[in-house]
Design goal:
The chain is α+β, with helices and mostly antiparallel strands. It has seven helices and 16 strands. The termini are far apart. Bound molecules: zinc ion. The site of zinc ion has 6 residues, from helix 3.
Length: about 300
């Protein structure tokens, strides 16, 4: 009889194989942040810069013009990898290849022996091109096994709406993603717990269905806040200033203030896709915010 022992061994080996990927994870060039027992790994997809002209409100705060004294302000494009139980969860996918920027998320995963087929879930903060580019490998879906999570209002806006503030090429990419992943897309509502310990938080303004994700474990919380901030040396002290990337600039400013306020009050960790800090948020007496800058 293919006996019970061999069967039990195979079952164990199967689970251990999954566990090895997750438990032995140590991404080169990345420092994980602990949230309870979870580890969250930021991945530097690309270095980018941001022009001062993105901030029309800057003219009222000339004391911050020095941020651009040496030209456009440096910023980052990040994605985040979160191993949960025996699954690998990726938050956003970066630029991918063949677009205006060369995204390195897949290269970094591959350098660490993580193949696209190992990714079990992908959570999107929104559908701009620097967040969904990595989902496409030419005319194919990059990730053959992943479930793709998108907020209902975000999907609706990109796939069935107009979004006249976004270029046709970006909308075409979003539609390609919808087509290639159609059987594996799960739409969520704000407030939904997408998987144990990850909850979708309303963060609209930058795009109509822009989402932040609260990652909670062991009484600790990290909010991955997507594109809530593009030019952190200005928008942390002056959260009321939105960039022209924000489709609804007023709403984006309210969302920015609300989420930073909440992080400061709850003493939780805060992170985003375009600033490198992952730290608590401190509210200043003048209404602005501080975060701990990386060494
Ligand atoms: Zn972005």
């Amino acid at each position: 009889m293919i006996n019970k022992k061999i069967f039990a061994f195979l079952v164990c080996a199967f689970f251990l194989a999954g566990a090895v990927i997750v438990n032995a994870l140590a991404l080169k060039d990345s420092e994980p942040v602990s949230v309870g027992e979870l580890q969250v790994w930021p991945i530097l997809d690309a270095n980018v810069t941001m022009e001062s002209s993105l901030l029309p409100g800057l003219k009222d705060f000339p004391q911050y013009e020095g941020v651009f004294a040496n030209g456009p302000a440096p910023a980052v494009d990040q994605t985040f990898l979160v191993p949960i139980n025996d699954r690998l969860v990726l938050i956003d996918t970066g630029w991918g290849k063949g677009g205006p920027k060369d995204g390195r998320t897949l290269d970094i995963l591959s350098e660490n022996n993580i193949k696209p087929e190992n990714i079990g879930d992908i959570l999107l903060t929104h559908m701009d091109i620097d967040h969904i580019g990595g989902l496409l490998d030419g005319d194919k879906a990059t990730f053959p096994n992943a479930t793709l999570w998108i907020s209902k209002p975000e999907y609706e806006a990109w796939i069935n709406g107009n979004l006249d503030k976004r270029p046709e090429v970006a909308k075409a990419k979003a539609k390609k993603v919808a087509e290639l992943y159609k059987d594996r897309i799960k739409l969520f509502e704000y407030g939904d717990e997408i998987m144990p310990g990850i909850t979708a938080i309303e963060a609209s303004g930058h795009t109509p269905g822009h989402t932040a994700f609260d990652i909670t474990n062991g009484g600790q919380k990290l909010t991955v806040a997507g594109d809530i901030i593009h030019i952190w040396p200005v928008q942390l002290p002056l959260p009321q200033l939105s960039t022209t990337y924000d489709i609804d600039m007023e709403k984006a400013a309210k969302t920015r203030e609300r989420l930073l306020d909440r992080a400061a009050a709850e003493r939780s960790l805060f992170a985003g896709m375009h600033f490198p800090m992952i730290s608590p948020v401190i509210k200043r007496a003048d209404g602005g915010f501080n975060m701990r800058e990386p060494r």
